[in-house]
């Protein structure tokens, strides 16, 4: 399957998810994920795990949802895709919120917000703030809920949509309602309702019409409450939303049973209560069934209808016990989910730490670009370069020195020299390839191609001679110097090894650079005609150097070659 076909399948899975066809979305997503994992397609893996997480969250499979979101997050972190990192943190927070693990939910949301701020992702940031507000509302932290809802509202009004602003405004109304500030709740419910009606968002408008009615009821304006309840009921019946119909009918029943309502009528109140109970029972809405049974039992008690009171109080009592039992079972399941989640999170953190350590090691032993390609899943890395410059350097006098010092002193001395060379390579844009004993190999022009590779490597060779001249003597009367050789040409570069990786070069340019070094002299930089041509032909050449002809000489394995010594330009 080619990449276009795979992306088309992923799009299908996403469309099924959005349409609520979760079984089909899950089936296709698993097919895509298997292909993406076998081919190390990290971007596709991230998106597919995200889809599977959303599907499982909707299905109530919270532990599986968290596992998929965590996998998506891990891949996003590898890709350094900050938008996906923040998005998956919010998804993980929403799972924790659904499980009632509010501290972890808040941690996830709060970690996501600075990421969205850094990349200027305003919509995702607003959604995260809304999620935080909802958590605080559920926890009864009303001041904090309002703080985050108002911040989200300011962002949404500046960068978002009217629909988004209306939803947040409605949430603010709900906070005030829970705070028993029903006048403020009415104010914000009304604002939200006006926008929903303007946008013709019928379901949301019907819901908030009922909320406005509830606020009027609590304030004591029963006529207004009746007006909005009936308006809400009409639209809900038109839309066929049975659960909301049952709630509003129960509220209307309570209104008709209230003696301060001008339309007070016990017969009509009873009708609405009974119809609400029947509908709640039909759709299995046990919480609503229980609540309205209690209201109807109280109604019968007030009217001294003891037989009906006993009947509906018993129904209330039995269903309440059933609901409590289900809640206890749900809590037990949530505890088990939390245990699994905590285990999964520990495993994820261990795997992430292990991966980060492996990633760090790869970057230490390989060029950054090559390490990144391996991390992204490339199995075989081999590249051809038409023009690079290769340098070999060998320490002259090393054998005598090694006989006069301890192994610890020798290794520390070598480490100091080669570390200074590594720093020079980083500074001048060259790439250290390897060290073999007292020999040092470096290249310019790969893995990042450049036109001024000869100039970079020439500058490094001069700096290397200067560095070793300035190095304090380790043993008196033993002079240390370097013999350096450079050549320019084409090479092949790539990774060798399965368990112990090495990045190396092959080709005639490598062999010739090695011959330049071995045929050179201590304290001098021996270079080929090809290197000289590469250096003087580059338009970027600003290196103050001169080439001292050495004439033609026999080079082992190469025959006659015209070579030069590279030196600083005479003042």
Question: How is this structure best described in words?
Answer:
With about 575 residues, the protein is of the alpha+beta class. Among the domains are: about 245-330, Serine Threonine Protein Phosphatase 5, Tetratricopeptide repeat, CATH 1.25.40.10; about 380-570, Alpha-Beta Plaits, CATH 3.30.70. Helix content is about 70%, strand content about 15%. The chain is built from 22 helices and eight strands. Strands 1, 2, 3, 4, 5, 6, 7 and 8 form an eight-stranded mixed sheet that branches. Strand 4 (about 480-495) and strand 5 (about 500-505) form a beta hairpin. Helix 2 (about 20-40) runs antiparallel to helix 3. The radius of gyration is 38 Å and the shape is rod-shaped. The mean pLDDT is about 85.
């Amino acid at each position: 399957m080619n990449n276009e076909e795979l992306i088309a399948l992923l799009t299908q899975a996403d469309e099924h998810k959005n349409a609520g066809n979760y079984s089909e979305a899950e089936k296709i997503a698993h097919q895509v994920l298997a292909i993406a994992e076998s081919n190390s397609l990290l971007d596709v893996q991230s998106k597919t795990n995200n889809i599977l997480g959303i599907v499982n969250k909707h299905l109530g499979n919270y532990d599986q949802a968290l596992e998929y979101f965590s996998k998506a997050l891990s891949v996003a972190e590898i890709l350094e895709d900050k938008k996906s990192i923040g998005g998956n943190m919010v998804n993980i927070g929403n799972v924790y919120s659904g499980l009632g693990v509010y501290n972890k939910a808040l941690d996830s949301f709060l970690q996501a917000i600075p990421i969205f701020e850094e990349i200027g992702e305003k919509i995702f940031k607003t959604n995260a703030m809304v999620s935080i507000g909802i958590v605080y509302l559920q926890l009864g932290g009303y001041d904090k809920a309002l703080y985050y809802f108002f911040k989200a509202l300011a962002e949404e009004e500046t960068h978002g949509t009217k629909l988004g602003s209306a939803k947040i405004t409605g949430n603010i109304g709900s906070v005030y309602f829970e705070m028993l500030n029903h006048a403020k709740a009415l104010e914000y419910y009304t604002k939200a309702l006006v926008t929903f009606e303007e946008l013709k968002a019928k379901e949301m408008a019907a819901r908030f019409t009922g909320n406005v009615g509830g606020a009027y009821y609590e304030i004591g304006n029963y006529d207004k409450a009746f007006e909005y309840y009936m308006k809400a009921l009409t639209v809900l019946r038109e839309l066929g939303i049975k659960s909301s119909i049952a709630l509003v009918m129960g509220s209307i029943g309570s209104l008709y049973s209230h003696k301060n309502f001008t339309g007070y009528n016990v017969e009509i109140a009873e009708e609405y209560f009974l119809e609400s109970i029947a509908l709640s029972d039909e759709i299995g809405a046990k919480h609503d069934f229980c609540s309205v049974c209690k209201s109807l039992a109280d109604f019968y008690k007030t009217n001294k209808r003891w037989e009906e009171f006993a009947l509906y109080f018993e129904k209330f009592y039995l269903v309440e016990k059933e609901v409590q039992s289900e809640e206890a079972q749900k809590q037990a399941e949530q505890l088990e989910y939390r245990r699994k989640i905590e285990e999964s999170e520990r495993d994820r953190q261990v795997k992430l730490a292990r991966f980060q350590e492996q990633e760090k090691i790869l970057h230490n032993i390989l060029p950054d670009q090559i390490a990144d390609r391996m991390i992204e899943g490339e199995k075989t890395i081999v590249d051809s370069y038409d023009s690079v410059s290769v340098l070999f350097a060998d320490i002259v006098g090393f054998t005598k020195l090694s006989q006069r010092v301890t192994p610890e002193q020798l290794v520390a001395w070598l480490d100091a020299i080669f570390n200074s060379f590594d720093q020079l390579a980083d500074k001048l844009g060259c790439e250290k390839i390897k060290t073999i004993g007292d020999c040092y190999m470096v290249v310019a022009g790969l893995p990042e191609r450049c036109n001024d590779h000869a100039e970079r490597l020439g500058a490094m060779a001069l700096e290397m001679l200067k560095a070793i001249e300035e190095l304090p003597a380790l043993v008196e009367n033993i002079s240390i110097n370097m013999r350096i050789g450079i050549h320019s040409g084409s090479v092949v570069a790539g990774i060798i090894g399965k368990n112990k990786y090495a990045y190396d070069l092959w080709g005639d340019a490598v062999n010739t650079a090695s011959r330049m070094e071995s045929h050179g002299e201590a304290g001098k930089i021996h270079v080929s005609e090809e290197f000289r041509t590469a250096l003087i032909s580059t338009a970027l050449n600003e290196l103050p150097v001169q080439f001292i002809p050495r004439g033609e000489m026999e080079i082992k394995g190469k025959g006659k070659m015209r070579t030069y010594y590279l030196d600083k330009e005479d003042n």
